[in-house]
Amino acid sequence: MPNKLEMNPVRAIRTFPSFPIALVVVGKEEKNIIAVSLVHTFSFNPPLIGIGISPCRYSHELLHRSPNFTVNLPCKELVEETLFCGEKSGKEVDKLEETGLTAVPGHKVDVPTLEECPVSFECRKVQNFDTGDHTWFIGEIVSAHVADGYDRERTLIYWAGEFRTIGELIRGR
């Protein structure tokens, strides 16, 4: 085992492997898309997914007001649109119009999914709680859509300022 050096916890947390990045759509009248790198499965039964949003984000306010949201997983071809949605505020710009992404009405929620994303989850918000500098919004997945021929290895992931795709399989379970 190599020697381990003590490190600043904020810096050390960046050693975690990459997480998926998602384009989260929230709001019925005031729609917004936010790029979210804090995305995680919270339960398989019932199927719950959580997104961590900073209170300083416009979408934080919208998520508190909205009972639903969608989580859309972009592929590597959408890196520029994803970056745009993460850098621009929905208060100042219509991200759907500016990116050219296509809103598709939800099947079971009143918030659209994004046609260009190969995976979309329609979520009904069931809980939210504050943890440090983010609020976790937990949604029950009430409808899921996966593109025919979906290839996980093209899914966009992000961590510590880098966009990547999933790499090599080392071992199965």
Describe the structure.
This protein has 173 residues and is α+β, with helices and mostly antiparallel strands. It has a single domain, classed as Pnp Oxidase, Chain A. The protein contains 4 helices and 12 strands; from the N terminus they run αβββββαβααββββββ. β7 (103-104) and β8 (113-114) form a beta hairpin. The mean pLDDT is 89.
Discrete helix count: 4
Relevant CATH superfamily: Electron Transport, Fmn-binding Protein, Chain A
Structural class by secondary-structure content = alpha+beta
Give the overall shape, derived from the CA principal axes.
Answer: globular
Radius of gyration: 16 Å
How many discrete domains?
A: 1
Which fold name is given in CATH as the topology? Pnp Oxidase, Chain A
The largest sheet is: 7 strands, antiparallel
Through-space gap between termini: 24 Å
Helix amount, in percent?
10-25%
Number of DSSP E strands: 12
Short description:
The chain has helices at 9-12, 58-65, 79-87, 95-99, and strands spanning 19-20, 22-26, 32-36, 39-44, 47-53, 68-73, 103-104, 113-114, 119-131, 134-146, 156-159, 162-165. With 173 residues, it is of the alpha+beta class.
